[in-house]
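Handoff note, outgoing to incoming analyst
You'll be picking up this chain. Sequence as last confirmed:
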Amino acid sequence: MKKEILIGFIIAIIATLFGFYIYVEFVSQYSFNETLKILNEQKLYGKIIGLAAIPNLFVFFVFLKKKQDYRARGVILASLLLAFVVLIIQFF
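Most recent structure output, in case you need it:
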């Protein structure tokens, strides 16, 4: 049971990283390094992490469809952790 939750958690983190990469590489009109500089200068990491977490929604529903409830719980835990990180980034 704990192993399944951990698998879901790790997959959600990977999906978020993939979403972040997709945003930086394809949505931004600047190069990868320039985009990271802009995000750092304007303190936009919290907003971009929030957008990057959207793929977790798809991962969550795939796990529910396959009746892998514990992995879906791992995705929820990762999403809650990301929400907490975004909250911290926005206020500090």
